[in-house]
Automatic annotation (TrEMBL):
Keywords: Membrane, Transmembrane, Transmembrane helix. The keyword Transmembrane applies. It holds the Pfam family SCFA_trans. The keyword Transmembrane helix applies. This is Short chain fatty acid transporter. The chain crosses the membrane at residues 20-40, 52-74, 94-123, 135-161, 181-200, 249-267, 279-296, 308-327, 347-369, 421-446. One of its GO terms (cellular component) is plasma membrane.
Length: 448
């Protein structure tokens, strides 16, 4: 296994560029395919790209909020203490890798945004606490748990198609979660990945000490004193304003008001969406940090996790716009679905979703452009709508293991480069892919 890991790590080191360069390259590739394969004029391609460039602006802001404020929540004294108690019980590098994977997986199963943050924070703590941990691997292991989002409570496509009024309701109706993420095949899939993925990740740990790259704490803490000094200077005087800045009463009142709104919202039958999750994270963080001063101090640290998102998400929005306007998604799907039957359509849906996710890595946006064609194919072949939808979701979550779009938060928290961790996530992607393919194929044949 060391040789396999070394092969992919060296491959990524030599050829994997920075995520921003990857986004630029993917943009140029999509433009070329739209012109050469779809026959769209260069003028229309450029127009689509520019028109769609800011179409994910609201989502970009939501992601920035969930990561920055999720960082505040995860580093609050209460949760930080809880994580420290977990970390202090871990003594061996292999165990540390397993724990990081499990925390990232369980967090992502509950909510994908929280899992992205909490996994990276735990991995960093473990790397500091446990001597001999290979830092790039434990960060990759924590991130690998993100694939559980496709099987979990915030799984985009299953939640969407179970919601009244969703865009494809007229074509497919409502499909309950008991037919998708809570179906027996998907529950068994989640259990299988939860058991085997941490063990695989632990197996990838270098066997020789000379191959281990431990955490560079100086790199992580290089600007902490400056941030602390700036915040302390802001609140240093003993004025009435400073008293308010350090007021626990103010934080408690506004925090409880925020929680009260959420309780009222759900009592009236309101649904849980990303905005409500962000609202919860914000006001829970205010309560747990205790004072406005402490919240601002932690938020100033969390801001560093969002720079890559702000820069790169618009490029992926532009790519998605080209994919949709040029018909590239339909062409890719047609090439797979053309050889499908009722039993194999979910399998080809999984594979085509994996490919498309390189170009459209947002679950909701992905479904908006691939979903209509896949549902029509399922109806014409008399294939299961629930299985086809879930297969597209799994293809999305499978590809996320090697999708730079989503790994940015982990890189920001760890201060590592994409090529440091991608060699490991490729191996994890191969293993998870085997599981997803086996499940989708068996599900397709056994249900017909």
């Amino acid at each position: 296994m060391d040789k396999v890991a070394d092969f992919f790590t060296e491959l990524m080191r030599r050829y994997m560029p920075d995520p921003f360069v990857f986004a630029i390259g993917l943009t140029l590739l999509t433009m070329a395919l739209a012109v050469l394969a779809q026959g769209q004029s260069a003028e229309l391609v450029l127009q689509s790209w520019g028109d769609g460039f800011w179409s994910l602006l609201a989502f970009t802001t939501q992601m920035a909020v969930i990561l920055a404020m999720g960082y505040v929540l995860a580093t609050s004294p209460f949760i930080d203490g809880f994580l420290n108690r977990i970390v202090q019980r871990v003594k061996r590098p292999a165990t540390a890798v397993i724990v990081a994977t499990l925390v990232g997986a369980i967090g992502s199963y509950l909510n994908w945004g929280f899992g992205l943050v909490i996994g990276g924070i735990v991995a960093r703590k473990l790397a500091i606490q446990v001597r001999g941990v290979h830092y790039p691997l434990i960060i990759a292991a924590a991130y690998s748990g993100f694939t559980f989002y496709g099987l979990g409570l915030s799984s985009t496509i299953p939640v969407l198609i179970s919601t009244p009024g969703h865009p494809l309701e007229s074509k497919m109706g409502l499909i309950g979660l008991t037919e998708t993420i809570f179906s027996l095949p998907m529950l068994l899939t989640a259990l299988c990945v939860l058991i085997t993925l941490p063990l695989l990740n632990a197996w990838l740990h270098p066997k020789h000490a000379r191959d281990v790259v431990e955490i560079d704490q100086a790199l992580l803490n290089d600007d902490s004193p400056k941030r602390a000094s700036a915040v302390d200077a802001l609140f240093a005087d003993n004025t009435f304003a400073a008293t308010l800045n350090n007021s626990r009463l103010l934080s408690s009142v506004i925090g409880l008001l925020g929680m009260g709104y959420l309780i009222l919202h759900f009592l009236k039958g309101g649904s849980l969406d990303l905005n409500k999750i962000n609202f919860f994270i914000l006001f829970l963080g205010i309560l747990l940090l205790g004072t406005p001063k402490q919240y601002i101090a932690k938020l100033s640290e969390g801001i560093k996790t969002i720079s890559g998102i702000i820069l790169q998400f618009p490029f992926y929005a532009g790519i998605m716009a080209i994919m949709q306007s040029s018909g590239l998604v339909n062409s890719i799907s047609h090439s797979f679905v053309g050889v499908a039957n009722a039993q194999t359509l979910p399998f080809w849906g999984l594979i085509s979703s994996f490919v498309i996710n390189f170009f459209a890595p947002s679950g909701g946006g992905h479904w908006a452009i691939q979903g209509p064609f896949m549902i029509e194919a399922a109806k014409s072949l008399n294939s299961s709508l629930a299985q086809t939808s879930m297969a597209v979701m799994l293809g999305n979550a499978w590809n996320d293991l090697v999708q730079p779009f989503w790994i940015l938060p982990a890189l920001a928290l760890s201060r590592l480069r994409l090529k440091d961790v991608m060699g490991y996530t490729v191996i994890m992607m191969l293993w998870v892919g085997l599981i997803y393919i086996a499940v989708v194929v068996l599900w397709g044949y056994l249900s017909h």
